[in-house]
Amino acid sequence: MRVKCVICDKIESIEDHSVLAKKLRNRPIHTYMCQPCGERIAVNTKKRTDTGNFRFYRSVAEDDEW
Is 33 exposed, middle or buried (0-12, 13-18, 19+ CB in 10 A)? Predict the structure, then answer.
């Protein structure tokens, strides 16, 4: 299966029967990002979180007693 990175527009080939290929076929909202772009985003996010000026807006998980 040929896929295109949403950031750098590089076209790569992944195996047709892989889990990622199945996810991309069955749910079009999921997008593909190549490994170098993913690593670059992870490094930049880590830098921003280390500064202390970056907040994750995550919902607080409440424990349900039931």
Answer: middle
